[in-house]
Amino acid sequence: MASIGEGTQKKRKLTDVEEIEIDVSAPEPPSKKALRKAKKAATVKPSESTTETEAVAAVEKPTTAPQKRSDHGVWIGNLAFSVTKDDLRTFFTSNCSFADTTITRIHMPKGAERFGKSQNKGFAYVDFSTQKATEEAIGLSEQLLTGRRVLIKDAKSFAGRPDKPKEDGQTGSAASGHAPSKRIFVGNLGFDATKEAIEEHFAQCGTVANVHVATFQDSGKCKGYAWVVFEDLAAAEAAVKGYVLVKEDDEEEEEEDESEPEERKRPRKPRQRKIWVNFLLGRRLRMEFAEDATTRYKKRFGKDGEGKKNNNSETGDAEAGEFEATEEQPRQARPPRAKQAKPEYTRYDQDTVQKLSGAIVESKGKKTTFD
């Protein structure tokens, strides 16, 4: 039995639409990753082999060939952060004889913005087309630019830069020539620094065994340096670095982790924070590994110490040679040194000596009376 209103429904007629033609032999369009790489490289050019999508991307952002570095260039430093490329170009063209076209490239790295204005990092590279222009630009070193004396040198010259450490993890104090030890030297201390304050300050690194402060003899105040001895080598190394790592207490996080199911729990790395120990009483300290006390004592008073050398130089070469020859003998077996006789002074006669010493001198003469 037919339902009511079945015959009353009318079918919709489709409008005539042009069929879409698909070329199966066409190459596969590039992916988004390929388009990003092409956009980053900026080397896409429309050609027969490129697809229509690549050609459109190339047309939307035209490629700009990067400037090539010249073999003739200078490095300019000590710039003010507000200096621009135009300021550098004007500085060179106004103080040199070459034209503006001689400057082929100015590379000025940008730093962090301040007060909404872009700033440079304090240095720049300027390339020239000739070596003569480079030499002329180097001659402008120590000249004023926006109130600062700039430093200009050859871009290929690395003189004046600190040498890189040979081994990774080498501390700056190793440059002093002393091996890591429990005894460190602390410099740039204030005159008001005390032994108790220094010991309390460096106790953050580890247990302090001894503190020796150099003081003035009259006032007893600190001379500006001291020696600190730790019980552990790790504490001394942390003090030389200038900071110590301390684990933070994560009690709240542990309570939250207990409420979570065991499946979702993940091992977390312990949080650490730095405690800086390179400042004391508002002064930046200078720490480095000190020479071991035993080694220092041997250098000064040992077999070949400084004190022995000074004694040998005073007594003469003959006695020094005799001392070296009898060094292996025990100290008691050495012959005693002969006492030198004191020289007799014959500069004054006996009468003059008596007068100088204040002794009473008997008169030798006749008494003369006058009428």
From TrEMBL:
RRM domain sequence ranges: 72-157, 182-292
Biased composition (Acidic residues): 248-261, 316-327
Region (Disordered): 23-70, 156-179, 248-270, 301-371
Gene Ontology cellular-component annotations: nucleolus
Pfam families, sorted: RRM_1
Biased amino acid composition, Basic and acidic residues: 156-169, 302-311, 341-352
Superkingdom of the source species: Eukaryota
UniProt-listed SUPFAM superfamilies: RNA-binding domain, RBD
InterPro entries, A to Z: Nucleotide-bd_a/b_plait_sf, RBD_domain_sf, RRM_dom
Molecular functions (GO terms): RNA binding
UniProt KW keywords: RNA-binding
Keyword Oxidoreductase: no
Residue stretches of biased makeup (Basic residues): 33-42
Name of the protein this chain belongs to: RRM domain-containing protein
Provenance organism: Aspergillus uvarum CBS 121591
Organism phylogeny: Eukaryota, Fungi, Dikarya, Ascomycota, Pezizomycotina
